[in-house]
Specification:
- The structure is a single chain.
- About 35% of the residues lie in helices and about 20% in strands.
- A hairpin with a 2-residue loop joins strand 9 and strand 10.
- Helix 18 packs antiparallel against helix 19 and helix 19 packs across helix 22.
- The longest helix is centred in the N-terminal third of the chain and has 23 residues.
- The protein starts with 5 loop residues before the first helix and ends in an 11-residue tail after the last strand.
């Protein structure tokens, strides 16, 4: 075709338009109506700008676009290469383009049909570019207009709105522009900044990139909408073979850098088309599209170039997978991005899926428990996650003929795991095979440490067929296999072949097999033993069993007296049995406080008569233990206090009854509680919250007497119920966040206290000075609740002032204090030892104090010890076990090398890889003396080397698990201000120190 000038083109265009009008042809108008989306023109203009910027001589200058809209027109500006005559002729001649050699529909778009999309909103678009300033009339005729320029931009395309457009349409168009999807910046190479200005706000889009070691690019798209800034990050893989064979894959990233599901799945040809895929990744290719660029046709005959691009996409997918495998990024969040359905509805999804399928089936792409990657044929899936703790790597090979378990993090992508099982025959590591291995290899369990068995029994507790009678005789049933370590840690079967028990729960006996004491004291193991049917052996057990069966209402008082004497003489095992069984029987004689009706109830439903409890339950039905029971015990030489203590052991309450209550925290509340310790992945969440028996009824009818009673009893609530707990766990760690419990929330925000004028008031913000005088006549054990209720106190005691001053001097804040209180995972409630300012010493020989009146202390404490028991075991044995459990479950729970070993009653040694690291002593401070009692090993250590730095001390109260932790650096000051008594002997019946 002969080249002509712009002037000649304009002349010929006028003739052609006139001829078409005469013939009734409207091809220009019809082509402008190709696009189903009237807002599509903005993508076409951006595509044109991308090409124009690419043609500039200064290739290093970033590409900028600015879009300005008002109620009359849109101005589109860019800093690309200005229009030339051929460009102007291209936008005014249908089916013409300045791109030669390739069909226009296969390219990003430099004028062709795409520019005609602007006619959906305008009749006379204007072009101001370089030396050219024209408006287009009748779709094809350029007419000169007054020049316009803008600093920093080479081209302005002005689109005056059609008069027929409604104001609603213009407002919608404005919103569409401001909400423009920024992801097109991922695949353009020139435009890096787009600014959109409208009367209702502004949007700024920009993109930056950084190269990675994965042959990929991280692109960050920044979006500022109306002053609110956000970022979207993508990991971009690209492949280009030839000018037009270009494909790309973009994986969305979270702010942490792992992969994140975005929900945007449309295939792009630089800009999103209407083709949606089934994977949560962004796909781009220079596909041939329909003329309106909205769809991608796939046909080996009509669009073979698209079939070729699918082949390129498969190659790119495999290359991406290998890069991510080398960098260790084939994690659960990556597999979460893809659909693992058997069928794919579109060829793009199917191409990616086939590439994934081939890669997973042949490469070491599956992460194992050992954090190494394996082929799917070399790994297995644990039927129960506990197997991953129980079966070592060498045992996996023996039992399941595989090398590792699949990593726990992959298990949360359930559809991926199901795909592996169905398509690649991922082996299931079944529990039955594990049980059979135990039965066939007796030495397997014999070689295990005691710590192994609680996990094993937890597994067995969930799978009854492995040990119950119903499946007796099956290859996997272990009912008659050596399954339980006895007191010498020798494996013993639970039952003999005739069904008789072969091992018992209870204290060690030379002639009878008893369960290893560490396991017998472990709650989860004990639960399994009871499920299995292992009986308890204890003196008096048979007598107790007879009593349980003999209970009658008519002889309840004498029954309780017999149970009391049996309990007093029995050991811990018998006592636990009595508490358990009595708790199941409606055996407590009680009277209803409201009606006076006499009846019997379970211990957990009864209260011991108390003045404050009765006032609190004035309008609430409550059951109080019958006075006749106290009279009967008193007549038989048992005081009221002794009976009260015994009833408490049985579960009868003598104070407010605190019970768990269901609480739901929404996601924002949980995120706020997790803000200091984020756990990922979050695999388990538990909420422990509490309420008070009768609280709802009390709040409906508060009286001064009941209010004062509650005020008094709140001070008696133990620390474990003063905060609710939100426990959140990953596979490797557990964190606890505290929040206000339900009962305190109610009491804080409702009217239940009385002021001096006998008016009801809410505690939150209430001044102590305005309380009714009745409150000052009672003395709560602690005023811990006042601050949590939001009350304002006018007076602080001298002791409290000293404590506050000391805390401030030490720099101890609420967070530190929280860490010092009881750890809910431990049986120990402890506080840190704070040295008094008066007892500071620069250095002191750590010599235990020798007390001349040790025998007097022995005599004063002698009544606490049962006959035949030595001081050594009685005082320190149980405390030492508590201490060891605390160290392993809380302090060193995350360590794989540190072990806490009980060397003697009162001494736990910490070993790191079998090297003694620290000595931790459990000591006791009797309630009726100031001395601290420690075992003889203390003296041995000091004689070896004074001024030791490898010793710490936990000092317990005699009657509860409260203790004070004294760290190695605090030992000197502690000894300076505290008496220490060291046992001289561990012989039975020896009361010397």
């Amino acid at each position: 075709m002969k080249n002509i000038s712009l002037k000649e083109h304009i002349t010929q265009s006028k003739i052609a338009v006139a001829a078409n009008k005469a013939k009734g042809n409207k091809h220009g108008q019809l082509l402008s109506m190709l696009y189903s989306d009237p807002f599509h023109f903005i993508e076409e203009l951006l595509q044109n700008a991308e090409d124009a910027i690419a043609r500039r001589k200064n290739a290093n200058e970033p590409g900028f676009v600015k879009i300005v809209m008002n109620n009359t027109n849109i101005d589109f500006l860019h800093n690309g290469d200005p229009f030339d005559e051929s460009d102007l002729m291209a936008v005014t001649t249908f089916a013409s383009t300045t791109k030669k050699g390739q069909p226009e529909i296969n390219q990003i778009g430099k004028f062709g049909i795409g520019f005609r999309s602007v006619y959906g909103i305008t009749d006379n678009p204007e072009i101001h570019s370089g030396i050219h300033h024209y408006k287009i009339v009748d779709f094809e005729i350029p007419e000169s207009v007054q020049p316009e320029t803008h600093v920093g931009f080479t081209t302005i395309i002005r689109l005056p709105f059609k008069k027929s457009l409604s104001m609603q349409f213009i407002e919608n168009l404005q919103q569409e522009l401001l909400d423009l999807n920024p992801n097109f910046l991922l695949f353009l190479k020139q435009i890096v900044h787009v600014e959109i200005l409208a009367s209702s706000g502004s949007t700024i889009l920009s993109v930056s990139e950084e190269q990675t070691n994965d042959n990929a690019i991280i692109k960050t798209i920044c979006v500022d909408r109306h002053g609110v800034r956000s970022e979207n990050r993508f990991l971009l893989f690209q492949k280009r073979s030839g000018k037009f064979n270009e494909v790309a894959l973009a994986l969305p990233l979270s702010h942490k850098g792992d992969f994140s599901v975005s929900g945007k799945r449309n295939v792009s040809v630089f800009f999103p088309t209407q083709l949606s895929i089934e994977h949560d990744v962004l796909v781009h290719g220079r596909f041939t599209t329909t003329p309106n660029r909205e769809n991608i046709p796939f046909s080996a005959v009509l669009t073979p170039e698209n079939e070729k691009l699918l082949e390129e996409l498969a190659v790119l997918t495999k290359s991406m997978l290998r890069s991510l495998m080398r960098s260790g990024k084939l994690t659960s969040d990556f597999f979460e991005l893809f659909s693992w359905n058997e069928t794919m509805r579109d060829p793009v999804s199917a191409t990616i899926r086939r590439a994934l399928d081939a890669f997973v089936g042949s490469e070491k792409s599956i992460l194992g428990l050992s954090e190494k990657s394996f082929c799917v044929s070399d790994i297995c899936l644990a039927e129960d996650e506990l197997l991953m703790e129980l079966v070592r790597k060498k045992d996996i090979a023996i039992i399941y003929h595989r090398f590792d378990f699949i990593a726990p993090q992959l298990l949360k992508v359930e559809r991926f795991v199901n795909y592996l099982r169905k398509s690649h025959k991922l082996r299931l590591a079944d529990i039955d095979s594990f049980a059979f291995h135990i039965a066939a290899n007796p030495l397997f369990l014999q070689k295990k440490t005691i710590q192994f068995f609680p996990v094993l029994y937890q597994l067995f507790s969930s799978h009854h067929r492995l040990w119950d009678l119903q499946h007796k005789g099956r290859y996997y049933n272990l009912r008659f296999a050596p399954l339980v370590p006895n007191q010498q840690k020798r494996m013993v079967a639970a039952f003999l072949s005739d069904g008789q028990p072969a091992i018992f729960l209870g204290k060690a006996s030379n002639s009878i097999n008893t369960v290893h004491p560490n396991l017998a004291s472990d709650p989860s193991s004990l639960n399994f033993f009871r499920m299995l049917g292992i009986p308890e052996i204890a003196h008096g057990l048979s007598d107790a069993e007879k009593l349980f069966q003999q209970f009658k209402h008519s002889t309840a008082n004498s029954w309780w007296l017999k149970m009391y004497h049996l309990y007093a003489k029995g050991d811990e095992t018998l006592r636990l049995r009595i508490v358990s069984k009595v708790g199941e029987i409606d055996c407590v004689p009680v009277a209803m406080n409201v009606s006076g009706d006499k009846q019997f109830c379970k211990p957990s439903k009864a209260y011991i008569s108390d003045t404050f409890l009765k006032k609190y339950f004035t309008f609430t039905p409550a059951l109080f233990v019958s006075e006749k029971l106290f009279q009967y015990f008193n007549a038989n030489g048992v005081s009221a206090s002794e009976l009260s203590h015994f009833l408490e052991q049985m579960g009868v309450k003598k104070s407010l009854k605190i019970f768990p209550t269901a609480t739901t925290l929404n996601e924002s509340e949980r995120e706020l509680l997790r803000q200091e310790q984020e756990v990922f992945p979050l695999v388990k969440e538990t909420i422990l919250d509490y309420s008070i028996d009768g609280l709802d009824s009390f709040l409906e009818h508060p009286s001064l007497g009941s209010s004062v009673a509650l005020w008094k009893m709140l001070g008696d609530i133990t620390e474990e119920f003063r905060d609710a707990q939100y426990i959140y766990e990953s596979y490797v760690r557990t964190e606890i966040a505290l929040f206000t419990p339900y009962f305190l929330t109610l009491l804080k925000n409702l009217n239940w206290i009385f002021n001096s004028n006998m008016q009801l008031a809410c505690p939150n913000g209430f001044n102590f000075d305005e309380l009714h005088k009745s409150y000052s006549e009672v003395f709560p054990a602690s005023m811990w609740f006042s601050e949590k209720l939001g009350m304002i106190g006018s007076g602080i005691s001298t002791d409290e002032k000293k404590m506050l001053a000391l805390l401030r001097q030490r720099g101890i804040g609420s967070k530190t204090l929280t860490e010092l209180v009881a750890n809910p995972q431990s049986e120990i409630n402890f506080v840190g030892y704070l040295e008094s300012d008066l007892s500071k010493v620069e250095s002191k020989s750590m010599q235990a104090t020798a007390l001349p009146d040790a025998n007097l202390i022995a005599q004063s404490l002698g009544g606490l010890f049962p006959t035949g028991k030595n001081w050594y075991q009685f005082l320190l044995g149980n405390k030492t076990e508590l201490l060891r459990n605390h160290l392993m479950k809380s302090v060193f729970a995350g360590s794989k090398t540190i072990q806490a070993v009980v060397e003697a009653p009162g001494l736990v040694c910490l070993y790191d890889n079998q090297v003694a690291m620290q000595y931790v002593f459990a000591a006791v401070s009797p309630d009726n003396g100031e001395a601290v009692l420690v075992c003889p090993e203390w003296r041995v250590l000091w004689q070896q080397r004074p001024e030791r730095k490898d010793v710490s001390l936990f000092v317990y109260n005699m009657t509860d698990p409260i203790c004070v932790e004294v760290k190695p650096s605090q030992i000197a000051n502690f000894l300076f201000s505290n008496m220490l008594v060291v046992f001289n002997s561990v012989n039975a019946n020896d009361n010397e120190f």
